[in-house]
Amino acid sequence: MTIAVYPGSFDPVTLGHYDIINRTARIMDKVVIGVLQNKSKTPLFSAQERVNMLKEVTAELENVEVRCFDGLLIDFARNCGANVIVRGLRAVTDFEYELQLAQTNRVIAPEIDTLFLNTNLKYSYLSSSIVKEIAGFGGDIHMFLHPQIADKVKAKFAQADACIKG
Ligand code: PNS
User: Fold this and answer.
1) Which helix (H) or strand (E) segment is 56 a member of?
2) Contact 73/5 with Cβ under 8 angstroms?
3) Is residue 119 helix, strand or coil?
4) What are phi and psi of 99, to 5 degrees?
5) Residue 15 and residue 144 in contact, taking contact as beta carbons nearer than 8 Å
6) pLDDT confidence band for 166 (50 / 70 / 90)
7) Is residue 41 annotated as a catalytic residue, yes or no?
8) Is the pTM above the cut of 0.85?
9) Closest protein CA for atom 7 of ligand 1
10) How many C-beta neighbours within 10 Å does residue 140 have?
11) Closest-lying ligand 1 atom to the alpha carbon of residue 11
12) C-alpha span between 31 and 13 (Å, rounded)
């Protein structure tokens, strides 16, 4: 059985992430999306909110599971019984960091390989950070996210604005 872990921050999940999930689900028996609960970053959405959003957009993909993790990715992957870690590569700028991550993980856990999928050209520029920047300035984000996720991002920024204005 081929089990892949697709790890990330997913703050929030974009159409680019979804494309990778969908394609991985077609080639693997099972995909476990690992949402990093990173205490060193301050995410827009809590880990539970990010997990819930991923569950919502992947509800129709029967072999996809969403879990939260903390600590080393390789420990999480082993815990899931995964043989493969999947990462999306958007452009050459991603390559150096991704290769370092993959090489290090391979030294720690030689039994788990990293598989890179090239991001769909349509989403090769897209990142969660850029979406948050646009939303923060009140820009249109509907072309980057599932509609229900776009609504949640807009609501977060509206909430933050309301707090600032008192
Ligand atoms: O979506 P991101 O933020 O690019 O994902 C990065 C992620 C989660 C894959 C990476 O930060 C990670 O694996 N973190 C877990 C900690 C870890 O294992 N670090 C050592 C990797 S060499």
Assistant:
1) helix 47-57
2) yes
3) coil
4) -70, -40
5) yes
6) low
7) yes
8) yes
9) 8
10) 10
11) 1
12) 16
